[in-house]
Every structure is written in C-alpha cells, then in structure tokens.
Amino acid sequence: MGRAFFKLDTVTISNSSQVNPILWKDNQVFLIDQTRLPGEYQLVEINSSQDMAKAIRTMIVRGAPAIGVSAAYGLYLGATEIEDTDRAAFLLKLEKIAQLLRETRPTAVNLFWAISLMLKVAHQTIGGVEEIKKALLVQAKNIQKEDIETCLAIGEHGLAALPKTPTKLTILTHCNTGALATAGYGTALGVIRSAWNAGRLERVFADETRPRLQGAKLTVWECVQDKIPVTLITDSMAAHCMKQGMIQAVIVGADRIAANGDAANKIGTYGLSVISKRHNVPFYVAAPLSTVDFSLDTGSSIPIEEREDSEIYQIGETRISPTEGVNYYNPAFDVTPAELITAIITEKAAVKPDELVKLSY
Asked: Which residues span the domain enclosing 293?
C-alpha cells in the first residue's frame, strides 16, 4: 500500500467541522491514516481493492459510515482491476471482490449496506462492462455525498432532542464519531458540533476509549481543530464525573442497531449506559438509518468482532502487561440494550428505541 504525504491545508475543509477523511482525486482514494493521529497527519494512497481491504482491516479508516463509503470506493477500484469484457464473467469477479471487502470488519453493518447497494447498481445498469464501471463510480460518490447530508440532518435532530436545561450542556462521548468516522461532520460528534454552533454546549468530555484510544487520539484532535472545549478522562472516570453532576448528557454512535433498538458500539458503551441510568443522565445513540439492521430482531444476533491480543498488552511499541501466563480477551464492541437508550437519533428523526421500526417505512 503506497503512502502519500500532504500538508493539512491540501485537504478541503468546507467549514469548521469538515476534515475530509476520504478524498477521491485523480482516480484514487486518499484516506487520513487514523492510526497515526494525533502525532502525524498523513494521507494514505489507495489504488486497489486489496489496498482498501487492508486499510479497513487495520483501521487506517474506521467508523461505520466511513467504512461504508470506503468500501464503495474499494469495490469500484476492484471493478477497474477486472479485465473481462463479458458482463457475466465481470459480475462474478466483482462479487469475489465484494466478499473480500465484507470480511474486513464483521460488526459494522454500513460496510455490508454499501457493498449491497453497489452490487445492485452493477446488476441493474444497462449496457456493457464499461457502463457498469462508470455507474459504480457515480454510486460511490453519491454514497459519500449523501453521508455528509445525513450527518448534518442527524446533528439538527440531535440538537432538538437534547435536554432543554441547562442552557449550556456538558456532554460525554465515547470513541470517535466525528468527521473522521464518517464522510464528514459526524454522527454523535456531529450532534455535539451542532450544539456548539447553536450555543448549547459548554464542554465535551471525551473518554480515552481503550484499548485503541480513539477518544484520546481522534475525538480530542477533532475538538481541538474546531476549538470546541474538551476535557479528556480515562474510561473509568465516567461514573465519578456523573456522580459529581459534571455530565448532563451522553451521546455515542453505533456500528449496528437491531430492529428493537439494541445498539452495538465500541466496547465500553454498555457500561456507560448502565451508569447513565443510575445517575439519571440521558443516553443517546446517533447513527444513520443505514446502521440499522432491520433483519435482526434484537442485539443478541449482532456479530461481535474480536481483535488482536496486542491491542491490550501494549500501547504503541510499549508492552504494559507480563509476557507469560496471561490470557487476553479483546471484543471490539458491546451491545447496549434498548431500555437503557433515551433516544436514537437518525437523519429522519430522534425516536425512542421502540419507535425505530416506524422509520423503516
């Protein structure tokens, strides 16, 4: 996988919240390498479906909506690699590339949603292979554009759903759900941005989000870019902060939501929902409707990705745990039951979890 190095100002920033994590330019994709933030800002040059699969799997790009957009471009790049001019042979090889991309991250349903949408376009496009390739690129660009519009709508619906008092809120968020996790603006962090722009936000509390520290590395970095007041805490400090009355709301994202409102998100989210309930702090999940898997009745059917032991026993190159006689368990996600969620915020509306199914019509 090639690396391209650019200054930050070469990336289009259309407003104070628009750092573009996914840039299509000169028939290739440039991704912000999120594994290097905040210490280094680098763009990774993606020229093939194999490159994109590796970028998704190694979390160069992460966040369910961003994974979906990236997978769409990855499938298009894979299409350009197919030399067959016979339509049936082309579509068969395209399905194999789609399967390669599907296998990168099992929990994020946006990945599967975007691939299914791209394959539908491929099969429904009239004409030969070249016409299909052109249609796939148009669809990938549309998925990216629509994700930004979706995030802006989530921000507005989320702003309306926030507690009316106090006038300025202190909000806790978990993991990273901002521009870096989407095509731009963000889901949960998009709501926070909307609150900041509307004068409703006093301060963001971001927890570290062990083991990969997306909160410390990415959410705090985005808040600094936008000059949003931010306080970093460890994951274990959230209950204490709530008990002290320092948090008025919690907003998180999701990688997959079941039809009943059970929501899978970064590990540690379930614990936050439990302590939020204990301290009467409203707990919101912000996600596009493409994150809702209406084929699953409950969250018990959501597949939970397990990642490498090394994410737990070392930080960077530094080992923090004994090398022998230790077992490791590293689930990347947990599932928050619907009854612990105050509202799910989508691009259509903010609704109670048991009303989510109404938005599918």
From this structure: 157-360
Contact partners, residue 171, CB within 8 Å, separation at least 6: 192, 195, 201, 203, 204, 205, 247, 248, 249, 250, 251
Read off the tokens for 330.
Answer: 């590293």
- Co-location of 246 and 290 in the same domain: yes
**Where in the sequence numbering do the catalytic residues fall?**
255
335, β-bridge pairs: 264
Contact 161, 345 (CB under 8 A): yes
Contact residues for 138 (Cβ-Cβ < 8 A; gap 6+): none
Say whether pLDDT at 17 is over 60.
no
Burial grade of 119 (CB within 10 A; 0-12, 13-18, 19 or more): middle
Distance CA 299, CA 285 (A): 14
Alpha-carbon gap, residue 65 to 278, rounded angstroms: 31
The residue from 150, 179, 194 where one domain ends is 150
**Of the candidates 93, 262, 251, which has an alpha carbon nearest to the alpha carbon of residue 170?**
251
Q: What is the pLDDT of residues 109-119, one digit of tens each?
A: 999 999 999 99
Give the span between the Cα atoms of 268 and 261, in whole angstroms: 18
Residue indicated by tokens 């802006």: 152
- Count other C-beta atoms under 10 Å from residue 347's C-beta: 22
At 20, the pLDDT band (50, 70, 90 cuts) reads confident
